[in-house]
Amino acid sequence: MPRSIQPLRASLASLLLACTFAAAPVRADAPTHAAAVPASTGVVGVTPAQLDPQFWIARQAQPDALLLDAAGIAAQNARMRAQDPHIRDMQALPAQWSRQEMLKAIQALSSPPTRTLYDVQGQPISPAALDDLQRAMALEAIAPQSSPRFGLVTARAALRTFPTSLRAFSRTGDLDLDRFQESALFPGDAVAVLHASADGQWLFVASERYDAWIQADKVAIGTRGQVLGYARSPDFLIVTGATVRTTYTPEQPQVSQLQLDMGVRVPLLRQWPVDALVNGQHPYTGHVIQLPIRDAQGQLQLVPALLPRTADVADRYLPLTARNLIAQAFKFLGERYGWGHDYDARDCSGFVSEIYRSFGILVPRNTSAQAVSPALDRIAFDAPRKGRAPKDMARRQAAVDALQVGDLVYIPGHVMVNIGHLDGMAYMIHDTAGGGWLGADGKRVAAHLNGVSVTPLEPMMASDTGSYLQQITNIQRIRPKGATAAE
Question: Distance (Å, rounded) from C-alpha 220 to C-alpha 296?
């Protein structure tokens, strides 16, 4: 199968997207970085002042130096589309798919669970219920040859492992990590509809970075040209806040108070007449944008909507600078961790993706794919063997000491964004369900940070005996190889 239509990587659960993990224990042979736990925060090495993005911006020697210009970003995205199999070029999607290609795409994601899962009441999900999910996919209905339909997502929508809203958990009482939750798509995202569930309520779709099941009522079907042309409008707005919402309107409920997340790109109707109402409201206090909706038959319509002028948006992608990288990351500070974009939020790799999307930079969806992407400037480390600390601790520390703002640090199941150095330690902002460090008694403190957090890297512990530093698998830089630090 051509690279452009290879099924994207399967389940988040199998791909370590959780950003919470059970690392293999290793001896703490490497020196442990001691840091105080301020009473004002209760988090190792972090004071209230460090929760202000200006604290980190002020430490940059050249915070406004351009790290990549528009041409450099375009070249980087071209490399990503050409080199990374986890990115699909929607413009190059084939017009015909065979049954074998369809089955491969669906079964790569929707394979039957092999372990016991529990529902929200803590009851085991029965084999019969899991069999029902397999039947719901209606794989026998896939034709020998078929042509995908195209659609635009009309509202933030969950991507699911199976055509179901049933939530599934690995342990009773742990309701944060829904194993059937994969990711999310956002208003205006283009999809190719490959298949429908037996009841027609779910669609299996291919998008730029993910294949999964989505509720059919969140997709408006249009022509290929309409759908793929939507994001190519030369006049557009980029959401630069964590989230923004359209203006309330009873005239057009589908675009009323619609959530748009960081990095979402929408056409700007710049030539809208100044005295023409938008859904019953004069437009002079807002931006007139164009959004997709579904008509009664599920077909695509493009309609005007208003974003308040106070909304955190821009009419071009943000310049890629240290100042902007830090500022964008901190806009999510304190947001609760959301596995697979659950809870109307995001997880560690979604956090990274949304930050960089506001600069117009494309990265894979999953932590495991980001960490090894051949299109990025990668430093790789051997994973430590069970029960042994890695032998390259000096190399690891040297790489951490050389981190630049925006560099991505990966440990199994988790990614962090560097924001600078302080007191001999590298500081990270990251969306984590866990987090821990050694207490005064030498035992690991499990902090359950469970949200977008600032922490130093070196004191953090991945297990009772293994530090984050020992567990680093990759460092990725979204800049030209050999770029010098601005710090």
Answer: 10
**Both tokens assigned to 359:** 């600069």
Q: Which amino acid is it at 402?
A: A
Cα–Cα distance between 234 and 269 in angstroms, integer? 10
- DSSP SS3 for 36: coil
Identify whether the C-beta of residue 399 lies closer than 8 Å to the C-beta of residue 475. yes
347-404 pLDDT per residue, tens: 999 999 999 999 999 999 999 999 999 999 999 998 767 767 788 999 999 999 999 9
Give the angle subtended at the CA of 29 by the CAs of 23 and 32, to the nearest 5°: 80
Q: Say how far apart CA 53 and CA 71 lie, in whole Å.
A: 28
Cβ proximity of 97 and 148 under 8 Å: yes
- What is the C-alpha to C-alpha distance for residues 21 and 435, in angstroms, rounded to an integer? 10
Nearest of 473, 472, 474, 464 to residue 28 by alpha carbon: 464
Which domains does the chain carry?
Answer: 3-71+319-477 (3.90.1720.10), 88-228 (2.30.30.40), 236-314 (2.30.30.40)
What's the distance, CA 213 to chain centroid? 17
Cα–Cα nearest to 255, from 215, 289, 300:
289
Residue with tokens 């490497």: 30
- Beta bridge partner(s), residue 184: 158
Judged on CB neighbours under 10 Å (0-12, 13-18, 19+), 91 is exposed
Q: Distance between CA 331 and CA 344 in Å, rounded?
A: 15
Q: Which two tokens stand for residue 259?
A: 């959530």
CB-CB neighbours of 244 under 10 Å: 20
- Report the SS3 class of residue 60: coil
C-beta separation of 184 from 157 below 8 A: yes
Q: Give this prediction's pTM.
A: 0.92
